[in-house]
Amino acid sequence: MNTRPPAEFAALIDNLRDFIDTEVILREDLRHAHDSEAVERTAAELYAIARSRGLGAPRARQEDGGLALSWTECCAYLEQAGRSFLGPQALRCAPPTQPDVFALDRLGSPAQRARYLEPLMRGERKSCFAMTEPAPGVGSDPRMLRTSARREGDGWVIDGHKWFISGAMRADFAIVVARTESGPSWFLVDVDTPGFERVRNIPTMEPFDMGGHAEIRITGCRVGADALVGEEGQGAAHSQLRLEGARLFHCMRYIGLASRAMDIAQAYALERESQGVPLADHQMVQAMVADAHIQLYAARQITLDVAHRLDAGTSIRHHSSMAKVFVSEAVYQVADSAVQICGALGVSEDVPVSMILRMLRPFRIYDGASEVHRAAIARRALRHRMSA
Predict the structure, then answer these.
(1) pLDDT tens for residues 162-184?
(2) Cβ contacts of 56 within 8 Å, gap of 6 or more
(3) DSSP3 helix / strand / coil % (the chain, rounded to 5)
């Protein structure tokens, strides 16, 4: 599905590729990979440049500075943006913002759209999605949700404990998943609401992570009746809706990042000699390069197929799970091969290959661990076989 003529879209991708190569990658300072303030400043500078070049968030409306691309077009756009750690942030399409926009656009009331969604799409506010909890709370199993919301007067009182909440350290509001009498439900909570406390940022292995992964305590946090998103008790279905788009965006971005790692490795293999010939002449290296390109090709095709299904309005629950498992493992293997080809240089921070590896590894856990997806895929396949 295309939103613009092929030649116009090709020119857009060429513009984006040049922007990433000549502006974004050149501003990556590996020394500041864990300095969120420095990364925030750089991303803001790059966003201004992107806007001047007619670039912006791929799914956002054009009146909000976006491009209103189809999911299919996003595959090419996000792959280019994802070649840099800073690309998605510079284009306002990094998680958790993009999946939150997608979900609130489907579920938000008119008042919620005006107060939360529209400023979020314009880049004036930041969001986070507060679902994951410490044990024995919810992780990959949504049935373990312990955070609660009870009716009191004309509003709700929320109590709970969340952690590893991506983007929360810089968020202006959170989508809090809590259990009500009717089941899991969503609530919009401004971070300055009494009882909402960001306890700490939890350090992780990922570089260039602006919003952190916060631990949050929610104690007697009172919100109005208008804080409920969508229908009470439908939080599990809402979360699935949000995650389907989020998984696909991760696949698109990380294909770009893995491709960059292999590009660096190939350049190194062509110039570095071993046993009197370039590394690129050794068949073991050639095998790693070939396998990487096979994996990237397959990852692109499975992602593109899911994007086509999403554009067509069909359910992608089963297919997005398969894409998430395959792509998360494929891109990590590509980056791992890039490290291996580069040898000692690959594990250093003189080049970004090791940082790319660290960025890609958590994807096998985020948005549902690969093992959980495999179990769900198998159950659906077996049910289908039994009913055939």
Answers:
(1) 999 999 999 999 999 999 999 99
(2) 50, 65, 66, 67, 91, 92
(3) 55, 15, 25
Which alpha helices (H) appear in 53-117, and where do they start and end? 71-81, 87-90, 97-107, 110-112
* pTM tops 0.85, yes or no: yes
Q: What is the pLDDT of residues 345-377, one digit of tens each?
A: 999 999 999 999 999 999 999 988 999 999 999
Distance CA 43, CA 203 (A): 20
pLDDT at 157 over 70: yes
pLDDT at 384: 80
CA distances from 314 to 78, 117, 245, 290, 296 (A): 22, 25, 13, 34, 25
Question: What distance in Å separates the CA atoms of residue 76 and residue 27, rounded to the nearest whole number?
Answer: 22
Neighbouring CB atoms inside 10 A of 28's CB total 18
pLDDT value of position 388? 61
The domains found in the chain, sorted by start residue, are 6-99 (1.10.540.10), 127-232 (2.40.110.10), 236-387 (1.20.140.10)
Taking residues 61-70, report their average pLDDT. 87
The residue ranking higher by pLDDT, 143 or 22, is 22
Spatial contact of 255 and 299, defined as CB atoms under 8 Å apart: yes
Query: Angle 211-118-194 (CA atoms, 0-180°, nearest 5)?
Result: 55
CA angle 326, 330, 333 (to 5 degrees): 145
Residues contacting 266, CB < 8 A, separation 6+: 280, 289, 341
Instruction: Please return the burial class of 376, using the count of CB atoms within 10 Å of its CB with bins 0-12, 13-18 and 19+.
Output: middle
The single residue listed with the structure tokens 């949700």 is 145
Tokens, residue 32: 């500041």
Among the listed residues 225, 257, 229, 224, the one whose alpha carbon sits nearest the alpha carbon of residue 242: 229
- For residue 153, count CB atoms less than 10 angstroms from its CB and return exposed for 0-12, middle for 13-18, buried for 19 or more: exposed
